[in-house]
Amino acid sequence: MMTSKIIEYANNLIKLTDEEAEQLSNAFKEVNIKKRQFIVQPNFTAKNRYYVLKGTLMAYVVTDEGHNHTITFAIDDWWITDYNSYIFQQPATMFIVALEDTIVLQIDHEKEHDLKKSNHKFETFFRIMAERGLASHQRRIISNLTQSAEERYENYASKYPQIVQRVPQYALASYLGMTTEFLSRIRNKRVAKKS
């Protein structure tokens, strides 16, 4: 069963008894998402948090001028939602769309809240994930402020090669804070160096 993946994930952070594993597993529901399907949209409250079993999702915002800015990606074994909307149960500001057919485990806000109330281990589990997410976002901000576009690409490509291969170039360029054309030049230069 696919929910065994969430147990495996959780056991890497906290150790669950069989009963706790079943309780965690029962809080999640498997959902199939088609390519180009949206699971979060602005002005609607994000009711769920998603753990990706297989596939790729992208979160982005659109400015008043119509420009898209990629906020994050989620691939196998990653989590995604509009966290501000989900945590505070207020209208979302992001779009989250499937870049390929995707299978997720979703947990709704109320079930997560009930899990945390029922057992401190679940509170610890979600806290650790929040801390890791915060550290990751901090690294991204620092990278954007201190590295050249080329350095950002090189570091990201070496750390997350599977994302670089799976997401469209326009989305990756947006995430890294550059134009698609500039990213294409960086990639071409990289290929030329290897030749």
TrEMBL record:
Keyword Iron part of the UniProt annotation: no
Alphabetized SUPFAM superfamilies for the sequence: cAMP-binding domain-like
Sorted UniProt keywords: Kinase, Transferase
Gene3D superfamilies: Jelly Rolls
Alphabetized GO MF terms: kinase activity
Lineage: superkingdom: Bacteria
Annotated Cyclic nucleotide-binding domain residues: 31-115
Pfam families in the record: cNMP_binding (PF00027)
Statement: the UniProt record of this protein carries the keyword Electron transport: no
UniProt name for this protein: cAMP-binding domain of CRP or a regulatory subunit of cAMP-dependent protein kinases
Organism encoding this protein: Chryseobacterium polytrichastri
